[in-house]
Input
Amino acid sequence: MMAASVGGVSGYLGSLMLSKRMALSAGPLGHLTLPGIALAFLYGFDVSLGAFPFVILGIIFIWLFHMRTKLPMEALTAIVFATGVAITFMFLPEEKTVSALIGDISQISPSATAITVILCFIIFLSTRNIFSKMILASISEDLAKVEGIDVRKDNLVYLGCIALTVAFGVRIVGALLTAALVAIPACASRNLSTNLNQFSYGAMALGSLASIVGVVVFWLTGMAPGPMIIMASTSFFLISMAFVR
Amino acid sequence: MAVDILRVKNLNVELDGLEIIKDLTFEVKEKEVLIILGPNGAGKTTLLRTLLGFLPYRGEIWWGTRNIGYLPPQELIQRRDLPPLSIEEFFKFKRVPLVQIQKTMVLVGLDSSLLRRRYGTFSTGQFQRLLIAWALVDEPSVLLFDEPTSGIDIGGQETIYSLLHKLWKERSLTILLVTHDLNIVWEHANNVLCLNKLNVCYGKPKAVLTPENLEKIYGTGLKYYEHTHE
Output
């Protein structure tokens, strides 16, 4: 249930990120969570609780560096996330390396599942609220402003949704595969859709389905669920290529 | 007696330390067509964006209505590299009933069956009509157009201006329109505001579009011929 919720909301948000050509940014953001994940393993608290503040901290550092140096954002993102990864491996317990990199949903409490599902629903509602406004702002920021859209506020909500989604995503697919959780269902849905509703809800359905399939394969074979979720997602994408519209 | 719908007094706009508009004062009455004329870089787009509240300014801007529609130049509107978006979904960003959308499409000469088409698959002329429909669909009382015929051929330009003239008459609109085209001023304007960073002239076209003022707006090298029907 947790995997389906996280997969679904990742796909939905991924459709908006793909529209804004930001789908790959979930990758570096996933890496930024590693120090928080390491701390969560060391001190025995929830991985998502560790991940979220480090994503926010990473975004703040990237923004501060950009304000100071005016260097391109992707270069600064590379500096911040690479440094985060390096710091992580100074204190991450070796036996937890695989879980940190590719996720582990095998030991999750019912309460953690319930909280995650509720928060995923909140992320979905927040993203749905800003979705059309952000697409209009992509077409023309001036047209959006004339319609009374507060582009800055919506961008802030958007970044908050990304940070939360990444924090939940790293739990099921780990820091290495978060970008795929967000991007691949959106790409598959893009191939199959002719309008925005089909695209966004299609991505949500495919993301959810891929997570369910990945977890089922894990139950049946014992193979790590994170990579299985991504392989399911990739399979859907490959199939969608036969039906591009 | 016609009522003021816009009053601008001593407007100054500075961007990145550069003075773009200096001490601009003018008024627009209801149902008037004001053409804003000037060369590239004169501050015309900056003026429209300032009137809409997008840019900081010094001076006074008073609007008699909040119901304002705006159309930026077509080249500033993204048409490619967008998600699959139908025309109907594009109009639904405005939250108006489908019936109103269909009526407005027909008003601008587009078939309402085009609502099912993908955004970005129109010709330049059709796309401009679509944008005009988008600006009109929630029935604004004032329309601000920034170069509505840029990128369109001469035949298409005449069609667009005829359409705007028809809409102005049918809907009793107030229109502020930015253009380079002097012909449009003579054919359609009640008043003209000439900009070249400063307010070069403002008033009735016949009174203010003198050779001297045109030279101030566009610089030297301009030839002016008056064609009289006698």
